[in-house]
Specification:
Chain lengths: ~110, ~110
């Protein structure tokens, strides 16, 4: 069955460092993959979409890579800030729907 | 401001009762979705609708029902047949099915007493 894996352990980093979150998927080949940010008790907010023919996508301090051979996406936040603390969800598409990972919680220490 | 409005934010239900969660959008989106989120788990798709008067079951539709009588509205009813309804429910919309980003509401937290 289709499966999404994100690190369930929280990532704890110092302000100013680069955070790197990993998303692995198995048993299918998505045409695109999305990343969302979710704060506690709130709905997810869209951040970036990367297509299968794109290796890398950037938006301000955010960078996403998509390796269809490894079946993996990496999400980077450079110059991280305490305000970046949240849970980040990856969502590769699967025909008619997005399949969401359980998310990785990022904690940025001042 | 355009967006998605879910209500109520918090809801308590006794076992055996049906409850309806409201979802309204003013983004003029064709597609709407209902997801369920449990602690430590990803979002799971309950139902989705691509157009008015049409909707499809997602992965966990049992015990739930929906309607799409208006483009703007996609209410979800959690019936007494749903064995474990306590969860965080999220409504979302997109311009059309499978065309990019989802816009989410703020969620409704249902607790069964």
């Amino acid at each position: 069955s289709q499966k999404i894996e994100q690190n369930s352990e929280a990532l704890n980093i110092q302000e100013g460092k680069t955070a790197t979150l990993t998303c692995n998927y198995t048993n299918y080949s998505p045409a695109y993959l999305q990343w969302y940010r979710q704060d506690p008790g709130r709905g997810p907010v869209f951040l970036l979409l990367i297509r299968e023919n794109e290796k890398e996508k950037r938006k301000e301090r955010l960078k996403v890579t998509f390796d269809t051979t490894l079946k993996q996406s990496l999400f980077h936040i450079t110059a991280s800030q305490p305000a970046d603390s949240a849970t980040y969800l990856c969502a590769p598409d699967s025909s008619y729907k997005l399949i969401f990972g359980s998310g990785t919680r990022l904690l940025v220490r001042p | 401001d355009g967006g998605i409005t879910q209500s109520p934010k918090y809801l308590f239900r006794k076992e055996g009762q049906n409850v309806t969660l409201s979802c309204e959008q003013n983004l003029n989106h064709d597609a709407m979705y209902w997801y369920r989120q449990d602690p430590g788990q990803g979002l799971r798709l309950i139902y989705y609708s691509q157009i008015v008067n049409d909707f499809q079951k997602g992965d966990i539709a049992e015990g739930y029902s929906v309607s799409r009588e208006k483009k703007e509205s996609f209410p979800l009813t959690v019936t007494s047949a749903q064995k474990n309804p306590t969860a965080f429910y999220l409504c979302a919309s997109s311009i059309a099915r499978n065309t990019g980003e989802l816009f989410f509401g703020e969620g409704s937290r249902l607790t069964v007493l």
